[in-house]
Amino acid sequence: MEQSAPAQPKPSQAQRLNRAFGPVVAGLIIDFVDLATFGPIGRYLGLPIGAFAGYWMGRALGLERKPSLLCALAAGAYCMMPGTEMIPIATVVGALARYRESAPKPDAASSEPRGPS
Prior knowledge:
117 residues
């Protein structure tokens, strides 16, 4: 008797949208927070607001709690740093993460040694 694996529940529309656009939108939010915390405001509000957006970005990327907290710390520090307001680093990171995730996985057939062509 063979047992089949239980069927995976179909993701909702909101889950699919968050998976597709969450990291990019979170990156945009972090970059807008960085822009909004320009100058002396960034020293006070950059860390808490950036950390909140960074945590959300980590969770949207599918990270566990601890790596998401590290992402939050990095985003908070990024929003506090002077001179980063016009550099969309967070948006690029979110897009690259999603792009890397969609890369084809090497399969066992491609790892076998090939003979002379």
